[in-house]
Amino acid sequence: MEDALIVRCPSCGAKNRIPVGRLDQPAKCGKCKTPLEPTKVPHELAPGQLDAIVRNSAIPVLVDFWAPWCGPCRMVAPEVKKVAEASNGRFLVVKVNTEQDPQTAARHRIQSIPLFAVFHRGTETARMAGARPAHDLLRFVEGARTA
After folding, report:
1. Is residue 32 within 8 Å of 12, Cβ to Cβ?
2. Does residue 38 have a cis peptide bond before it, meaning omega lies within 30 degrees of 0?
3. Quick check: pTM over 0.90?
4. 76 sits in which H/E element
5. Signed CA dihedral, 94, 41, 99, 53: sign only
6. Which residues are identified as catalytic?
7. Per-run averaged pLDDT (10 residues), the chain, 147 residues
8. What domains are there in the chain, each with its CATH number?
């Protein structure tokens, strides 16, 4: 399933598949029933997975387009993690490695990284280039969600 996230249970370690269309609903571990918080961490997407995620997500999606060789991308990674932790289920944070998935980067016309884009109901609503602190990224996402 391209439009699902794999979330490891913090209690028992079991892997759980959560459809992005159900991210607006509470999730529990299939093995131990511990509540899961899939929006509290940035998710690394597999090549080709982005389009299904943004098309089917029940909540807005902040996409971090990055590459491992990019210094500013590595510098902003802890800030992106803070943004995911602060999301409180209002939006999902995903990361697309443009080195591993150049077709997706080309399709979305990514010309510089890091680049952040917000998608809502399958449509890009905003984009912003450059490394930013978490509070700027949060303000960006909140502003894009109302656009």
Report:
1. yes
2. no
3. yes
4. helix 71-86
5. negative
6. 70, 73
7. 86 94 92 93 93 93 97 97 94 96 96 96 94 96 77
8. 39-146 (3.40.30.10)
